[in-house]
Amino acid sequence: MTGTSRALRRLALLLPLTLLASQGLTAQGSAHGGDVRVAVVPNPDAQQYPRPESLQAEDETPWIYEGSDVPRDEEWAFGKLENGLRYGVRENGVPPGQVSIRVRIDAGSLYEDDDELGYAHLLEHMLFRESQYLGVAEAIPRWQKLGATFGSDTNAETSATHTVYKLDLPNVTPAKFEESMKLISGMVRAPVLSDANVDAEVPIVLAEKRERGGVAERIYEARTRTLFAGQRLADRITIGTEETLTSATGASVQNFYDRWYRPENTVISVVGDLDPMLLASMVEKYFSGWEVEGEPVAAPDFGDPVAPAGADPANPVGEVAVIAEPNVQRFLTLAYLRPWRQVNDTIVYNEGRLQEQLALQLINRRLEARARSGGSFVQAGAGEIKLSRSTHMTVVQVAPLGNDWEAALQDARAVISDALTNPPTREEMDRELAEMEVAYTDLVEQRSVLPAARFADELVNAVDIRETIAAPETFLMVFNSMRAKATPESVLQETRELFTGDVIRAVYITPDAGDATEQGVRTELLEDVDAAGNARLAAQTVSFDDLPPIGEPGEIVSRGSHGIGEVERITFDNGVTALLLANEYEPGRTYVKVRFGKGYLAFEPEDAAYISLGQQALFAAGLGELGQEELDRLRTGRKLSWQLEIGDGTFSFFSETRRQDLADQLYLFAAKLNMPHWDPNPITRAKALASLGYEQYSASPGSVVSRDLNYYLYDQNPVFRTPTPEMLEAADVEGFREVWQPILEQGPVEILIFGDFDREEAVEDLRRTFGALPDRKPIPQEVLAREYALGDPGETVVRYHNGEENQAAAVIAWPAGAGRGGMRTSRQLAILTEVISNRLLDAMREKFGASYSPSVRMDWPTDVESGGSILAFAQMQPKDVPVFFAEADRIAADLTKNPPTAEELQRAAEPLRSYYERLSSGNYFFMSELEGSTTDMRRMQALRGFLQDFQQPSSERMLTLAQLYLADPAWRMAVLPEGQELATQLPPGGAAAGR
Description:
Helix content: 25-40%
Strand content: 15-25%
Strand order of the largest sheet: 14-15-16-20-17-19-18
Radius of gyration: 29 Å
CATH class of the largest domain: Alpha Beta
Number of helices: 30
Structural class: alpha+beta
Largest sheet: 7 strands, mixed
Oligomer: single chain
Shape: globular
Number of strands: 25
Distance between the termini: 47 Å
CATH topology of the largest domain: Cytochrome Bc1 Complex, Chain A, domain 1
């Protein structure tokens, strides 16, 4: 049973449709205009279409509910064509004007013969290359012109059991929707699988395989072979093998296509902002005529997990692997495997699934407590999954603190042994049930604001696991039913079933080949483990009512309109300011952001280790007299969270909460500023995790870029350095406090609360929390004077990795602007960036087959006046790094002389405009756009004509921007395998040489 909620009708914030696309917004606003409202927007497409012939009747059991007593989600309409194709359609207006289309083929890598490995994924690529209505490489540009972004709005996925083609179509009209359905039908029903197209696409897939490869992929493949030994899942990696891919021909790929791409293997899910009768009509129009020859082929037998001969039935330990790879963190996986079987997706079945969830939450709470208190592992957890219709498995994963993996495994097993021996206490159960209730109640509260894409995905995912879909009210009903029946004894029984398997398998990953043997791991698993007598958390009551006040409630010195819509601005006598926008447009969602300080600029050169540790441990270190465990107790039964963001020029706390928990969320944030606690355990644990993971950065070029890019891009600014184990070892709790306490005390505070809440209650809550803060200390002048500087664009920075010899990465960056005064310029520059991205993708992927997914991004910081860039990144073979730099230089140079064509600008600008139009239909967007505007009105001024900045871009403007930002030499960085040198010449014949 999967699913979430009912659809939102055509509700939209009118601001993006009026003020953002007009010149009617001024910095001061209007007392009578520019209101942010929600209204029911008339749907011009809402007319009666002829009833689709294959739509199932209301009194007929929809195909997805056959054999189930789960209540039907009435928002869905289902149909089944005579050719066997099934579909589901649903109206949804989130975001407004979008339709999400999913076409699922019941064939993935498990359906491949031995000489077809990788064909399911290759075929996914082939459908985008050429088809009945789309010429070679036309698919992506065609949908870009329709506003769909490549990689997010237009995409596909191949798994072990299915292939899904995805399109999120913005600014939809009946004509645009019909055109898209026609194009998709041509892709699915009539792809052009010629030798030429296969030869063109295979190098791209091989580039993807190369970029995906390396240590992580080797570990994944070895782990998969062990855990699923004897099943097809063990040796059918989705990407395939180089041998089978290079041997592929048009005929061999066509054979795979003919076998599995059939209407009876196809499910189409369409959800969006059009009449569902139109959605169904178009599915039937373009797919009812799909006829294929021959009888359908039965899916292959995926096989069952089976213990080896002679295994002890009471403890059937089977295959064990020790995988030694340098630069990896020690990690244990223990799996209890049972056969996957088709179930009747009934209410009783789902009650049992929820009891399994309850049992695992109890265990994971205990494992987390052991890790926090300084146990032999830094992380451990248990989970359950029905994987690829091949196995129903329970998995335990353990990350040892040091190299004593035996102690870590024993400790984790002892915690689980206690759960298998003794029933949980009622207090433990009530705590986890309260957490589950919040989650399921939250779904019900938010059911009207969940996006179309989520519903479209849920239907195809439900089909993949052979279960039904359900509304959130059904989930809550089943949860309440389970809660009424659950007892400590029934949870104990569920726990025992979870940790019973037909076979038990294990994988130990280590950087030291002499660390363990397979027999050593097997011996550990065969040994009995005593139940941990101290695994359970003692009952403890922590209440907000018992916490000390922040201070004397503050006084409001000003309150009124912020000059835009219904946004209200409040200033307290301690200087704290707040922006509030209360509405019910997104039920159950209240966004809170607290801004203060100067972000990365606030740190000293020696603070790098404490920056990293703060991101992990600042909130976990507690507040007042409360440590991490007490904070967790406070959150029980509430929707409370905390997220620290360190920006270029500001710090922020963020949470998505709900109106009934807003007061407590504000208290937690204010208390963190005013009465921070410095529990050493989270800091020590964060040090251990960061140290253990550091060596993994050297394992691949992409990881090296993640580690080193900002440090070198910003002229080796020490605050951007990823801390080494030696730096972390030197860090201590007192140093952590010395760095972070002044930061929490300094600078003006701005709070933004946008969403579903009571305005007057929130004002009073602010008085008692942020209004009660003591006067803030000033930010030192030396910090205020700091700026960012990009590295010297002279000699290329060269870094090295010790992974695969055929992997490299390259980055090139041009300086760009920064600051709120240039935000409208930044939107135009974003269009130019997309032009560069499209050209680089065409060159490196389509022309040379050298890189699977080169990308270009524009960074225009708004909280500082320096440090922006246009940055391109790609992974490739070492010999192709000069090709990447040459192509990037060529593209930049050409744009400084010749403006983009009108077609290029449409491809670049329309997806951006559509993206921001969709984004601007919610409260979070406006909160993000208005943050900082209490101290800098340019933020509000930049909203004028927001969407117009992406409409009909001028070629002359693009030429001017290119001459301004792309004419100077670019900064460069290359990551090569250890021992190789950066080539200074292009390879003979260009990037394609040697293929």
